[in-house]
Amino acid sequence: MLTGLVPAIGQPDGDGDGDATRLPLLAVQANLFECGGMAIGLNFSHRVVDGTTSSAFISCWAKTALDDCHDDQAPFMVPKFDAASYFPPLDFLNSSQPSPPNLVGIKYITKRFVFDASRIATLQSHLSIATAPHAPTRVLVVSALIWKCAMEASSKSSNIPLGSRPSSFKMAMDLRRRFEPPFPQNLGGNVVANLVVVATPSLLKGQEENDDETIDLKDLVAKLRKGLEQQKETYPTKLPFDSIKAWQWDQECQKLTGNVDMYHLCPGSWCRFPFYEANFGLGKPAWVSIPSIGLKDLVILIDKRDGKGIEAMLSVSEEIMEHFESNPELLKYASVNPKVM
């Protein structure tokens, strides 16, 4: 039985000089265990792959291994790397690029937080807003809760009052379904745009005069939902594609998330990708996960095997993690690194 599938997007190991011609775009490792189990690890270069592309590649590979590529009912998609025909490239050589943050001396660790389907349903019920046409999605409520707890943990670890600085939430939006007509799901590359929502100190509420300030989670969910929907509506999604406007949008996002006076969280959702359908001939995976990330303030969400629960891989500094993983509100809905099987 195939016991594990571990996809990851990042920079494959290399000589560290950043030369794309000298680094592999894909690295694969098969791990065989004495019990008869197997784990397959994949590492894609983010220069050419996003979550949708990696999912299409894995589905294609698995169907090829099963010689099942002619099954009309199978989600078999060969990635096609022709995104440049939709998105005309621009000359960025003369444009200014943001300086990378100075992370010397800071150690970032990754931990796994698991939200079971029943707890997510309880959270959704608690956060349902009467004025909204639909209940908030499971990805939205889990993201909002993690953002809230991360802001509180950052405030405690830095001794900066919670109500004294804003926070940003930057999420990647898959553009394939946003266009009319939609692009094919096997369109390869990084077909994404960044959306940034800012929580201002006005969202913070003090309960009593001497109490610590807290964030109202319902208000945060409403803010997050409204902000993401508004940006999805205003992002350029018509052909011919307005590359200049999209580039200006991205520059504004980078400027905002580069503000050192704010706390920034960068989440990504790999939910609803068919990773658990990847059968290479030994059965479907028992567990699909993302390895330790080790990057600054990043969280990746991925489905549990039942397709209803969510696993969150959070990477923050050791100081923030100490406060985050002990947050009572978080522990009402999430388990910290429970057993896989």
Automatic annotation (TrEMBL):
Keyword Membrane: no
InterPro entries: CAT-like_dom_sf (IPR023213)
Highest rank taxon of the organism: Eukaryota
Keywords: Acyltransferase, Transferase
Coiled coil stretches, renumbered: none
Pfam families tied to this protein: Transferase (PF02458)
Family per record: Belongs to the plant acyltransferase family.
Record-given protein name: BAHD acyltransferase At5g47980-like
Organism for this UniProt entry: Prunus mume
